[in-house]
Amino acid sequence: MTMMRKILGATAALAISATAVLAEPAIIFDLGGKFDKSFNEAAFSGAERWAEETGGSYKDVELQSDAQREAALRGFADRGYNPIVMAGFSFATALNTVAADYPDTKFVLIDMVVDQPNVKSVVFAEHEGSYLVGVLAAMASKSGTVSFIGGMDIPLISKFACGYAQGVKDTKGDATVIVNMTGTTPSAWNDPVKGGELTRAQMSQGSDVVFAAAGGTGLGVLQTAADQGILSIGVDSNQNYLQPGSVLTSMVKRVDNAVYEAFSAGENVMPGFSAMGLDNDGVGYTVDEFNKSLITDEMMAAVEDAKAKIISGEIMVHDYMSDESCPSF
Amino acid sequence: MELTHKSGRQETAAHDLPPAIELRGISKAFGPVQANKDINFSVAKGTIHGIIGENGAGKSTLMSILYGFYKADAGEVLINGQTTLIPDSQAAISAGIGMVFQHFKLVENFTVLENVILGAEDGAMLRPSLAKARKELTRLAKEYELNVNPDTLVEELSVGHKQRVEILKALYRHADILILDEPTGVLTPAEADHLFRIFDGLKKQGKTIILITHKLREIMDITDTVSVMRRGEMTATVKTSETSPEHLAELMVGRKVLLEVSKTPARPGASVLEVENLRVVDEDKVERLKGVSLQLRAGEILGIAGVAGNGQSELLEVLAGMQTATGSVRLNGQELDLTGAKSDARTRRKKGIAHVPEDRHDEGLILEFSAWENIAFGYEDDPAYNKGMLMDNAALRAETHAKMERFDVRPPHPRLEAKNFSGGNQQKIVLAREIERNPDLLLIGQPTRGVDIGAIEFIHQRIVELRDQGKAILLVSVELDEIMSLSDRIAVMFDGQIMGERRPEETDEKELGLLMAGINRKAN
Amino acid sequence: MQKMPKWADVALIPLINILIAFTLSGLIIWAIGGDPFRALKTMVTGSFGSTNGWGYTLYYTTNFIFTGLAVATAYQARLFNIGGEGQAMLGGLGVALVALSIDWPHWAIALPAAAIGGAAFGAFWAVIPAYLQAKRGSHIVITTIMFNFIASALVGYLLLNFLKVPGNMSTESAGFPAGTNLPTFSDMLAPFGITFAKNAPANISFLVALACAFGYWLLIWHTKLGYQIRAFGQSETGAIYAGINPVRIVVITMVISGALAGMMALNNVMGEAERLIDNAVEGAGFIGIAVALMGRNHPVGIVLAALLFGFLFQGGSELSLWEGIPRELVVVIQGLVILLTGALDNMVRGPVERLFLMLHKGEA
């Protein structure tokens, strides 16, 4: 049966001009490409996991230019792929115009909200996850100064920074949080050298725990932190293994789960709004064999307590994107 | 290896030597233009062989074939009696041919020594090559009177010395046959004499020299044999001792030429140009003009004689608006702006100054432009060439064709690019543009440099005609003959100053030569 | 001196170059296990097989015509404008500011205004390197390259801090008012009874690009200014002899060049995205160099070369979308075409010239 499906899938893929008989899912990666060691790659691993577990096949594509967004969306919809998952907020505008033309196709947009009857929007509560790693950072810091390195200066990254800062301040009221962005262009996502420089600069200001939410740039941050003997915090995927004993924890954002769920639901994806937060393990912090020596029982208790309080609503973590400001800075 | 083999053979066959170079049936065409047509020609070993001919006669093409720049369409080349293929200059060098071009091919910011070994280094490390070259240079210098300090930068050398470096380069590469293209064009009389002494020394050592020139006197003075080229063909080869300049000139152009310019005495009118205390300091803070004053009247030709590089070029450039200066220049009594916004060439043209520059390749013409575009050069804003916002290219082409006919530019094709005309015809295009503007003052630099005899005569006549129409003409030339025969007055420049002024009928080449060397025997 | 007929120079040699590039690309596709002929078929049908394909191909073509003309204009004065990318980015900013400034009643009014805005901003971005070159001798290649980075940072900063809609995640400006939306080919062709793919991005700025190509031809070969630009490009000393002011020519040439690059924003910002996106130029400024080179700086050549690159972009995108050929390989194919038509031009030229000489001799 599985064999049969694979053969059928292959034939469908070959006869590209003909409409696909089977409603396969499809995913479109953003300009960064599916091997960006970060967001897109997380989405890719979710799709791969689904394919492995179900034996199904899916179609994927990496964009080269902005003008292709609409073309790729229409192309997939015309060929009958369903659902179509988009990794990245940049698809919002294109999706808004395309979705209405294909009422029978389900679209899943990650990291952004598009209000259409056949679109499921998946957003993550990055500020909540960042709050938790902020708690850990404050407790692990000996100097009382911690820092944050963002990639490109966009609201989403400020959302990370703001939650992190609040977590730090709530834990240690007199702590200092240094915030730096790598740049204002997309190249800021992939500049490990500059990431390392920023890390050194922050160290000279006293920081001994640095949280990098900067894609490929973060790899330079983690490396430098390990070289200089301070702690770092990874992002998106579990990056603890990258510098064992130096990465305090990672603020994971389960993009892979979002993709996996969308693929699993198939054509029956429920349109609407889906928030991935602490309650449904959409975001979180990681503890594994690479970092468990860094996290004391006291820290563990404090962070679990914070997590419970956020879920229960006792602690309100400020979402930077709700008003583009951050009280904790 | 090959060289030693050759010299060995040379000694054994001492009596009936094969010619150093023999060309058999060489032909070369560029599109429809037959540059060389079935050329047969041989040069005896150990002689100085002159080649003369009008520009565009095919001399340079022939030598380029010999040096491997062009491939002949037909025919063969024999070196020392052996058929030799010369696909590139490297092959020419290893066949023992050395070439000294009119425009030197030296690296200005290298020393003499570095230039000599350039391209002839042994191995990757420079030091052994340099040491070897230094020894060799000392030997060559002694042997041939080729004294140049090997450690001087080439850019600091005079033109004459640069030429010696070129000759040294060829000798260093074991050249037995030296080809020189217009070698005296840039030299002072003294430097030219020195060069001829070098030739004698080379000849005594058994080297063969091929000399390409326009100057009949040089041919008569130093060559053993002379070949004449006309329109791509070799029309005659004669022993120099058995011919005369008049005969050679006739062979070159196919008709009798008047070497003397026929002109009536000048009838100078009102003062057109008054220059006072003109000074120019160049980018390197060197003073190029050191207070030049002169006056020029309508209907006369003032010739500026001097060795190249003594300020004549700067004088022309200042007057033409290409260079700023201090001092005072009045045109028709009106003061000219020498430094400000109105000191540009266009303003000068509008005021009635036409300029035939010394360097027609870099200044007077845009070689990549067609003839008709060059006719508008500097005058492209003339209302006659424009129709509303656009240029009237058709009208311009028609006018160019008419001008080309009047100035006997061949071929008279306005659409042909300037680079495809011979030197003389290029100069005629520049003259056609500048003279027919009816200027009050014509600045003309080296009017016949690299121009064939037929065109020289034509150009000289035009200059005299313009004078007779009452125009003022400032002529700069390094050709003393030209200055003597054209000028009504001669001013000699040396080291940025005017050394003295003479009337042509009251002076001779000897006195002018002394003035050019900075020696004034007679107080002004 | 004619070594070979003109048609061989302008048509045959580029054709051979493209053929070699495609052969090599085919080999690469074959080597990674693809079917080169199917790939070619996908590319051709994807770019020319439907009005939708045409719409995308011509959209890219429009970008490349603008940037190609920009590079060519500067090259006439022997100035290497490597800054088309940055100038087009600034042009996008200019277009966006114009489009967002008032509620435009109709595109026919908004288009010329936006064209002026884009051209002015692009020209401004080119005139600074031009001035530095003319007055200070700073090499224009270096300064224009650096200005690309500055442009990218500047536009990013402005988008983030001033133009972005609060709450929007993407660094992009607000959508332009409906009155600025340019007619697409579908809108333009509908009155003639021709149906064109409704969603393809090609729009009226393609016609603006063609008009600019014609204007370039007029300017360079039929005006005093063009004459002076070309004369200056051929010989600077010659220009001084003729009384052409070098500073003026450098500055004016770069103004025109930058304006042409800036007007590209009519197509990608105003015509396609209908808002200003960060990094909207996407390398078109650099492709312009290849387009000008391949088009021999002649408007017809530039339009044809732009069409070729439009085809490569659209066909390449089809390849990566539907053939599973990685997008990196598509870039390799585009790079091969640039390499062969630009840098390795002489590799083909030499043998072809010799061939013609042989043929010529055979006739004679």
List keywords for this structure.
heterotrimer, A: alpha/beta, Rossmann fold, 11 helices, 12 strands, globular, disordered N terminus, C: 364 residues, mainly alpha, ABC transporter involved in vitamin B12 uptake, BtuC, 16 helices
Quick synopsis:
With 329 residues, chain A is α/β, with parallel strands linked by helices. Chain A has helices at residues 2-14, 39-54, 68-78, 92-99, 126-140, 155-171, 192-204, 217-228, 255-265, 297-312, 320-323, and strands spanning 26-29, 59-62, 84-87, 107-110, 119-124, 145-152, 176-183, 209-213, 231-236, 247-253, 272-276, 283-285.
Structure description:
- Chain A has eleven helices and twelve strands.
- By secondary structure, chain A is of the alpha/beta class.
- In chain A, the strands form two sheets. Chain A has a six-stranded parallel β-sheet with strand order 2-1-3-4-5-11, sandwiched between helices.
- In chain A, helix 2 packs parallel to helix 9 (255-265).
- Chain A is globular, with a radius of gyration of 21 Å.
- Residues 1-21 of chain A have low confidence and may be disordered.
- Among the domains of chain B are: 1-96 and 221-256, Rossmann fold (3-Layer(aba) Sandwich), CATH 3.40.50; 271-366 and 439-516, P-loop containing nucleotide triphosphate hydrolases (Rossmann fold, 3-Layer(aba) Sandwich).
- Chain B has a six-stranded mixed β-sheet with strand order 6-7-8-3-9-10, with helices on both faces. A six-stranded mixed β-sheet of chain B has the order 16-19-20-13-21-22, sandwiched between helices.
- In chain B, helix 15 runs parallel beside helix 16.
- Chain C has a single domain, classed as ABC transporter involved in vitamin B12 uptake, BtuC, CATH 1.10.3470.
- The two termini of chain C are 16 Å apart.
- Chain C is built from 16 helices and no strands.
- Helix content of chain C is 76%, strand content 0%.
